[in-house]
Amino acid sequence: MTNTTKKKAVTGLIGQSLFALAFFLFLSTLIIIFNLTFSMNPVTAQSESQQNIRSLIEQARNAWVNRDVDALTELFALDGELIVPSHRSQGRAKIREQIANFAQQYIDVNITIQRIVIDGNQAAVEWHYEDTEKSTGKRNQADDAIIIEVKDGQICYWREYFDTSSSTQPY
Question: Which domain, by its residues, includes 13?
Fold first, then answer.
């Protein structure tokens, strides 16, 4: 093998190696750009989910305060469950009945959210609740703890806890 042939062989190998390296860098860059463009940071996804759940809780609060039966009912999944001491309603139709019954009997509802803790698709809420019985004018109040589970942007489980022996909340 002549020196010229050896130089051409070495030059060819170096050229092929540089081409392979350049191609690898190009593909790596494309993969990084694709991931940055089309994938969502898990922290961002979690905070968006938390914001959606927080918004859902605030919408529920506003619907209770306004005694807006339709708005509150629509926040629940079709097979959702609403549980308060001595009442359990499963499915939107039953939940609507329970909320409508409440809206007919109570006015001047005030709810102050004190704390919301969110973990995945579940939340715990503490709020101070007040209303007035239409028939008697009696003012009721209680501090509530509520456990909520959300699926596909709707409430599938709402369970409210309060001390029925010391509270003046209507249920």
Answer: 1-39
